[in-house]
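Lab notes, practical 5.
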Amino acid sequence: MTIAVILFLVGFALLIKGGDWFVDGATGIAQRFHLPELLIGATVVSIGTTLPEVMVSAQAALQHNAGISYGNAIGSIICNTSLIAALTVAIKPGLVKRSTLRLPTIAFFFSAAIYSFIAYTSGDFKRWHGIMFLTIFLCYMILSVLQMKKEDVEVATEEQEHKEMPLWKELVLLLVGAVAIAFGANLLVNNGTIIASALGVPDSVIGLTMVALGTSLPELVTAITSLMKGHGALSLGNVIGANLFNIVLVSGAAITISPFSIPSEKMIMGMNSSLVVDIPVMFLVMLLLCVPALIKERLFRWQGILLLCIYAAFTLYQFLI
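Output from the prediction step:
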């Protein structure tokens, strides 16, 4: 128990410091090449913070555990949007650039529509579906790089004697930060589960809290770190990019490794709960986050508060039904 507590604290420290390094590296690269922070957040940062989901889903797929492979992706999208992005927006709403928000948003809804179509029509994800999602991921990355080259960004040119660190150092910060985040999340989840078990917390509660939220901790830490450093666009880009990657990279990899059918353990009014509640909630929270931002080019505090209320209701539903 003592070792678990120590490792839990080490994991937490790694998450905090890893998030710090990761944001420093990402924003340094963005400023160096005059790239939009939102696009950096939606690509490089998102891949780093999605690593825990990729590892959990891949491991679940290898063990033919469809429940985790499926639930991890959809659950993380809902958590990222209605808890992590919601906290960021509720605390510090700000301006966003429609041109840099457009690509990750369109890519997400396009991928989510395909994913949902398969879920509602057949409920069976085949290997070629996984390969298709991974191909979409590759195309998105290429389009993002092309957009970055075209974007004429006004990077806050108060070049406050921005002490430019060498490029290699920024890349090392990015890489080491990503590894620290992923490793820290693992330590936190694994040892948090041990501590909870020792304290007599039921397994169902552990699964719905520590494990479900655990793989989203990197996004939460990166969002908070970005916010504290004044990089709100990086935080928003990270959440939208991570949500996209949960479908095309996390689910794509899991389906390719081991095709699965939508789990049907939980039913509501004789219908699969995932089709009635989980997928509709996923679309609802993303629409609430993205539509006002695309129309008004800014985020509003009411969005964050409403999303937090939806997350609380969704979590309550999971406990009660």
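Observations recorded by the TA: The beta strands are 124-125, 260-261, 267-268, 271-272. The longest strand covers residues 124-125.
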